[in-house]
Amino acid sequence: MSNELAGVERFEDPGLPEHKHRKADHDAIAANKAERQVAILFLLSAVGTVGTIASYIFIDTKKFIYLPILGNTNAAQLALGTGLAASLFFIGIAAVHWAKTLMPDEEVIAERHEFRSSDADRSEFVKTVKERSGAAGLGRRSLIKRSMGVALGLIGLSPLVLLRDLGPLPKNQLSTTDWSSGVRLMTDPGGRPIMPGDLEVGSVAQVLPELPAGTERTLENIGKDAVLLIRIRPEEFNLNAERLSWTYNGIIAFSKICSHMGCAVALYEQQTKHLLCPCHQSTFDVTRAAKVIFGPAARPLPQLAITVDADGYLVAKQGFTEPVGPSFWERNSA
Amino acid sequence: MRLNKFRRNRFAGPVLVVAALLTVGSAFSIASALPSAQKSEVSAQSTLVDEGKQIFLKGCSSCHGLNAEGGAIAPSLIGVGAAAVDFQVGTGRMPMADMSQQAMRKKPVYNAEETAALAAYVASLAPGPAAIDPASLTWERDGNVAQGGQLFRTNCAMCHNFAAQGGALTNGKYAPSLMGVAPQHIYEAMITGPQSMPKFSDKTITPAEKLSIIAWIKSSQSEPAIGGASLGRVGPVTEGLLVWTFGLGLLIAVAVWLATKAR
Amino acid sequence: MKKSEQIAGNVAGYIDDRTGAAGWAKKNLTKVFPDHWSFMLGEIALYSFIILLLSGTFLTFWFDPSQQEVVYNGAYAPLSHVSMSASYASTLHISFDVRGGLLMRQIHHWAALIFMAAIVVHLLRVFFTGAFRKPREANWLIGIGLLTLGIVEGFLGYSLPDDLLSGTGIRIAEAIIQAIPVVGSYLSFFAFGGAFPGHAFIPRIYIVHVLLLPGIFLALITVHLMLVWYQKHTQYPGPGRKETNVVGYPLMPVYMAKAGGFFFIVFGVTAFLGAVASINPIWLYGPYTPGQISAGSQPDWYMGWLDGLVRMAPPLETHAFGHTISWNILIPGLIIPGILFTGMALYPFIESWISGDKQEHHLLDRPRNVPNRTALGAMSLSFMLIALANGGNDIIATHFHLTINGIMWFTRIGLFVVPPIVFIITKRICLSLQRADREIVLHGRETGRLVMTPEGEFLEVHEELTPEQKWTLTQHAQPAPLQLATEDAQGTRSKSAGIKGKLRSRMSAANAEQIAAPTAAQARELEGGHH
Prior knowledge:
Chain A is α+β, with helices and mostly antiparallel strands. Chain A has helices at 23-26, 28-58, 75-101, 119-136, 142-155, 157-162, 219-225, 241-244, and strands at 64-67, 71-74, 108-111, 185-187, 204-209, 227-231, 251-255, 267-269, 274-276, 283-285, 291-294, 303-304, 306-308, 314-316.
């Protein structure tokens, strides 16, 4: 052990302290008491097991009981669980108490052995490896070495290629939604078309696009199509002419899929006109086309251009002009 | 101790201050309790709208303006309707106790009759949504709990949390817990959109759907703690806290016991 | 000989004939293990793993990972006629229709949280006591591997029921994958079998969660334990304890009873939690759909620091040449965790490079005697805690009447400002404790008893420490900082004269900052002076 103070006189190691005996070591009464305690603990475990099985058989799963702190809890679940817990716990406590009070507790010293092999063994090892790899001819026969390298290098590619059918290529799926010119906005849930008059100033609606008849709406559709409709007073908008033309009488539509990591951004603060995404707290300003004003989102929510159709229902003027949802490498973000 | 001598006692000062505080405090409590007594006297004499106007002028106009036109610190009440008043006053949010970010639900200051009077007054200013009669909310019979849950999770959970326990908004605002809220107040909140909450008009969420939402909220409130203590129904944060305090704490305590020598 | 002894002898003979087991069995039954409560933290993790295997197997008998859409008509009325995936429906079935099902689900999830917590405290114990030093570097690496895989395994596990909360977590994971430059969208479509959420992801992670990762865990844990067994456990310094011995208790009967008993205790406490505390009430979250979200959505605690980092990230994205790189996702989601875990994994090698220490160590360090390492550990911990706090900023805000914006800014700045402060304070505290140790060895413990000498002088009686205590406080090695030669014997500039060498020298000097431990000679000198 290298030691700064090796040359200087250090305090001495006084060796293992004297063993202190426990009561149970010399007092038979105390030992018997400990034995009884261990026995009681084991028996408590047995009681727990009996309780567990009894509650499984006899307690109605629909029964609820009231307990402080827990509230109205399911009686069967509670009884099963506490019974199981007791049956396990007390075995453990019994075993530990037994070890602490009755099993020998004198400290034992064992020597460590050096891991290091002897120098002779080490050089033997090196010699053996050298001889035998030499015998294999790897060093001399470079043709074998190179061709083996090629074979082993290539073999790893097959499993990778076999994984190709894990999924389709993205193609343009990340950039398209079911919104296009003339598609009606439908309430979610409920599936009813919406007229501008249905929305008061200060109200919101969750909408999904009307799908062609017979098409089933999948979660993959919802994951791209979900839109939030918000109505404010038209004079409160702070938009350029183009974006203003995408609104209708104070009603503005945004993709509900957060531009950060895809959570649903539906938390609308009516007075501040901010949208908050609860996942990472990105905050978007509705009056300025969902511009990001706080949080980690780097892009505003895509805005959906809306107008009304001949029947007076709100429809999309066109699809989204940019991909919705989180960013990706191929996204040509302005 | 004669009074003269007491004047020179070193405790005289503090005792006097405490006595003064008690006197003024009691006087204030009595005085602030008086208006209710006065109000009930008034109601016997005027019509509902007039009564409402009186209460309004005394308790609300200092922030909302003498004609409820609003101002820098409080919005205009013209057109908000009886529903908004019934909600705000009925849940105790108004009158607001302090000028903080958000009005908190608390014990209502005005009783039902006074609230109705205020509502009638505000309704008389301009057309607005009517207060909801609790008897008309047949949510127990007509509300579909499962459908209400779907509606709640799509329209409400993002602010109020999946179990209606409430959630954070920006800059200190919050969506409150919906536990223990009267059905008519839930309905009125949806149609009037109090403070940060948006409005959910009857066309986007139909009255039947609103009944289902109420049914689900009530079902959630009365739902037993099926798996044991619910830990606040706010998700993994409290679960993690329990593990690091009770769970690991208990296990480490046992380990310390295990390694200690017996006597 | 009793009948039972005879039978036992026959059985032992049968096995020994075929395996020669008697020799190593005898050797190992008498193997000595040192006894300290802090050595049981890894055991908590090990036993939690076994509990996870047992409860998890139970759950697989009823769980269906399929994403096929079903309409629910089971026992939980608030979800009747609601469309959901089969995985969500089967989890509801386990919770409400299988007796003991909810209990097992809860035991499984509580065990997972305890598993991760135990790994972390075990890691902290190993770190602060220097148990990762030679020859145990490999075990440290395995441990970091177990930590990393544990985080993944837990995330995959709670994502299996496909509820609103965990589905949101998968959405976020998908966004991280998608954000990877060049290959992100391809990796995402391959992982999910198409567009998010798809039908393939949950069945695939099911196999990873119940087969692949548990298999890897079993292998790693086995090697981890075999190394501890073979290299023998480290021990705290003290009287009679040397680098060349192990002082403790034998496996049979003491350790079998204590360790075996502890397994049952851990299982019992976990079962108790499963009985009385609700966890992951998926029926309240509802089935996952991308159009819904709940306020206060967080991952499980062991991923909270990741969520916190993502929340506080500045909104940085690069848009150039028709491509987008989302630094706001890559930095907190992949780059910082990568740096952290790589740094953790390499730490034993970094420390031995700094200190030049190539010796074996079987005696543990008292944290105060290695102030630099202790300060570094405290600093890293403070970093993680600040990130973790931000992960729950919305819950903290509503419960303590703060603002999410305020907490966000506090943690954004705090992440950089607080750790160096914690480093400095911790190091100073360690050095102060060393000074206190030195004082108490040289001057004894102040008893508070006053004695008056005949001359009228008042003296406080100091109680001298016992030889055992003196040894424990002074036995530690205090290596000098590295002296790197800038020139060799011929005067040629050596390798260590460059920047790397200078850096190493300076770090070594900082690392070796210590208060010199008192020597017996100094104590005697003082004693002479006292009287």
